[in-house]
Amino acid sequence: MSEFVRAFLAFDIDSDAVKKKLTYMQTQAVQTGADLKLVEPENIHMTIRFLGDITLNMADKIFEEMQKTQFKPFPVQLTGLGVFPSLSYPRVVWAGIALGADQLQNVFEQIEPRLQKLGLTPDNKAFSPHLTIARVRSARNKPQLAEFVTKNAKYDFGAVEARCLRLKRSQLTPKGPIYSTLKEYCPK
């Protein structure tokens, strides 16, 4: 019987300075009184594709496809706060991506058809490069949260380099998910 792992493809945030700014914005968001579940700073990443539960054999096949993805390390400028799906119904608070969004989109567009050929279900949501920093658990203080997000729509988090595409494992625990890298592809 094959072991299943919950997995996704992502680029990690490898800058302590950027993580510090993301953490600062998280603490400011909490001060709105909104009912938020913060993403642990070490878990904040740029998701390319959520994969769901896959076997370790499938992970090997996905890694083969990752290695066919053509990109060189590129800068990613993180700018501004926003929410999904809307300010009137916020479920996710995110940090935006200005510079580098096109390259992230390109990586997604290369890998998505290959994942479907492996039998993975198509990703029906439009790809939208971002970093999730919090999840909204209830409507408590929603107007204050909306005002905070709007006020920080152009906040500068700094830049990182998207260097290695990683196949990440997500182990769900009562204290939150624990992420680890199963495979990584770092083109030169």
- Total number of beta strands: 9
CATH-derived architecture: Alpha-Beta Complex
Structural class: alpha+beta
pLDDT averaged over residues: 95
Note the main sheet.
5 strands, antiparallel
What is the molecular shape? Answer: globular
- Going by CATH, the homologous superfamily would be Cyclic phosphodiesterase
Percentage of residues in DSSP E strands: 35-45%
Helical coverage, percent range: 25-40%
Q: Report the end-to-end length measured between terminal Cα atoms.
A: 37 Å
Order of helices and strands: EHEEHEEHEHEEE
Question: Per CATH, what is the topology?
Answer: Cyclic Phosphodiesterase, Chain: A
Task: Strand order, main sheet: write it out.
Answer: 2-6-5-4-7
Whole-number radius of gyration? 17 Å
Query: Can you tell me the number of structural domains?
Result: 1
Q: How many helices in DSSP terms?
A: 4
Q: Provide the CATH top-level class.
A: Alpha Beta
Low-confidence stretches: none
Element layout with pairings:
Layout (H helix, E strand, L loop, with lengths): L3 E9 L3 H15 L5 E3 L6 E11 H11 L7 E13 L2 E9 L3 H17 L12 E7 L5 H10 L4 E7 L2 E7 L6 E8 L3
Antiparallel strand pairs: 1-3, 1-8, 2-6, 4-5, 4-7, 5-6, 8-9
